[in-house]
Amino acid sequence: MIYINGENLALQQMIDVVRGFEKVALDQEGIEKVKASRKLVEELIERGEVVYGITTGFGKLADVMIPQEKVEELQRNLILSHACGVGDPLPKEVVRAMMLLRANALVKGYSGIRLETLQLLVDMLNADVVPVVYSQGSVGASGDLVPLAHMVLVMLGYGEAYYQGERMPGDKALIKAGLKPITLGAKEGLALINGTQCMTALGALGVYDSLNLAKTADICAALTMEALQGIPDAYDERIQQLRPHPGQLKAARNIRAILNGSGLVYRKERDRVQDAYTLRCTPQVHGASRDAINYVAEVVVREINSATDNPLIFPEDGIVFSGGNFHGQPIALAMDFLGIALAELANISERRIERLVNSNLSGLPPFLIADSGINSGYMIAQYTAASLVSENKVLSHPASVDSIPTSANQEDHVSMGTIAARKMYNILTNAENVLAVELLTAAQALEFRDKDKLASGTKAVYDLIRSSIPALTHDRLIAPEIHKMQEKIHSGEIIQAVEQVVGLLL
């Protein structure tokens, strides 16, 4: 059981809930804060005070006063009118992350929501009632209004949800899970949808997988180094210490650990003085991406423990403030940065693939197949990697530099953070597939080397690959093998195989 209080939810805890289906409960101190902020909301309504989103309309309609008897209708209409999403549904794990992160923000006690409403969101998460949330429609301010509105629809008995592997109407999903829809009270609709939880859910899952991808990239580089009989001098600790960027230091240390004991790279006879940049500069390139990923991780962890709606309720002071914590700019910039960092891991990987399959550069058979000509070998696998890398270059164009006015120019600067996060998510998958091709081609290149001279770390990777994918002796269908390798990368199986031999990678 993971208790949430809005203050210290960790990235690993989020993964345990979203992917590991760990149960969630509200922290008792958080519960008391939720009750206190709700009490102030009710007092404001009783006094007839003018407070945005509680006794007024929304956005450009903030000056429209709402009579007390219309407050529930206002909140219901807010959700129905804002559920304008289009495109493909988001992956279920992203929606589960949205639910967790929204609950974590609400339990901080600054949103004015009723405890029973918040509890329903937690109960849905624990029962794995996952709303169908469409991926397009958010401009990233005032938060992720459109996707969060689709999440809340199911709480009201509308919309659609996945339950026990089946897509069905929202009210049916609630009934099957033993839950009941609610009627929203004052401020509650706004409290539920006025936040950054869609872009942050994508970002949190993406940065977690990116941290693992950086380690996998080091493994790929080490395997390719042995396949090409590279020169490991460039990874010497003394070189890195003269330019001590943390990521560079870690990447070099990882590669040295994986290559420790290799008879293919640590050898006396050499036919060249130094390697091409894609081998020699791996610590610098991988390291820069690592540092970017770690920066983004800090931003994301701050965001998942932030209150991001408007207005915010301060019961201890008896006051309500309208502000701009819903604005997604911090996440938007971070997601663009993360996308670029991931694209670079794929970029350098594709260039290593080219060196593997190009006989003029590798000294190995063309396209890594003995009987080339009648066989194309891994020729077209490199095409696939090149295609993905090129697509990533387009996706890496920053979304955060764009803005377009909404709500009749009341909301005249928006972040496009959710677009940035969605692009990053696609770049991540593309990068995983590029690294999958590198693992396949590097393992195939080793068929033409003395495998008895492999380091223990690279041998663990080679053995894992060969446990399900045989060496390429003649042309066969390669796509399923790329998919299989991508799954091993995404699941962390590649990293686990190496760490069992060399210890934990940094």
TrEMBL record:
Its EC number is 4.3.1.3. It comes from the Bacteria. Pathway: Amino-acid degradation; L-histidine degradation into L-glutamate; N-formimidoyl-L-glutamate from L-histidine: step 1/3. Keywords: Cytoplasm, Histidine metabolism, Lyase. It is an enzyme of class 4 (lyase). One of its GO terms (biological process) is L-histidine catabolic process to glutamate and formamide. The keyword Protein biosynthesis does not apply. GO terms for molecular function: histidine ammonia-lyase activity. There is a cross-link at residues 141-143 (5-imidazolinone (Ala-Gly)). Contains an active site 4-methylidene-imidazol-5-one (MIO), which is formed autocatalytically by cyclization and dehydration of residues Ala-Ser-Gly. It catalyses: L-histidine = trans-urocanate + NH4(+). SUPFAM superfamilies: L-aspartase-like (SSF48557). One of its GO terms (cellular component) is cytoplasm. InterPro entries: Aromatic_Lyase, Fumarase/histidase_N, HutH, L-Aspartase-like, Phe/His_NH3-lyase_AS. Pfam families: Lyase_aromatic (PF00221). The modification 2,3-didehydroalanine (Ser) is found at residue 142. Its main location: cytoplasm. PROSITE patterns: PAL_HISTIDASE (PS00488). Gene3D superfamilies: Fumarase/aspartase (Central domain), Fumarase/aspartase (N-terminal domain). NCBIfam families: hutH (TIGR01225), PRK09367.1 (NF006871). PANTHER family: HISTIDINE AMMONIA-LYASE. HAMAP family: His_ammonia_lyase (MF_00229). Belongs to the PAL/histidase family. This is Histidine ammonia-lyase. It comes from Anoxybacter fermentans.
